[in-house]
Design goal:
Ribosomal Protein S5, domain 2; 4 helices
Length: 135
């Protein structure tokens, strides 16, 4: 029975709408990003979503410095990508507080507070009223 050496990592949580991403940033990595056990390019097949995930790493010029493991749940693909971005940015600040100024200016550290508005009684959706009839 062999005991694996524990690797040092920085952990953070990112959120957007109903999506939540738990991010672990490992120091010894070659730029590998795994999301729910899959490569991030397989999990987010569109270039736009891949760009969202990589944006905090590109901003601080640390693209191939870390191995990143992410567990993401809830929401749609776009909200999940933004939750991963938020989590990566928070973990980078824990790793190096000097990154905070750049990441904050880019808006990656602020959780996007916009949520779906609740449905009101008598309406079809949050604000959509039934079609008005004269008779």
């Amino acid at each position: 029975m062999t005991k694996e050496k524990e690797e040092k990592y920085f952990q953070a949580v990112g959120r957007r709408k109903t999506a939540s991403a738990q991010v672990k940033l490992f120091l010894n990595g070659g730029g590998e990003i795994l999301i729910n056990g899959k490569d991030f390019k397989e999990y987010f097949p569109t270039f736009y979503l891949q760009k969202i995930v990589l944006s905090p790493l590109e901003l601080v010029k640390c693209l191939n410095k870390f191995k990143i493991l992410v567990k993401v749940t809830g929401g749609g693909k776009n909200a999940q990508a933004e939750a991963v971005r938020h989590g990566i940015a928070r973990a980078l600040v824990i790793f190096n507080p000097d990154f905070r100024k750049k990441l904050k200016k880019a808006g990656f550290l602020k959780r996007d507070p916009r949520m779906k508005e609740r449905k009101k009684p008598g309406l079809k959706r949050a604000r959509r009223a039934p079609q008005w009839q004269k008779r």
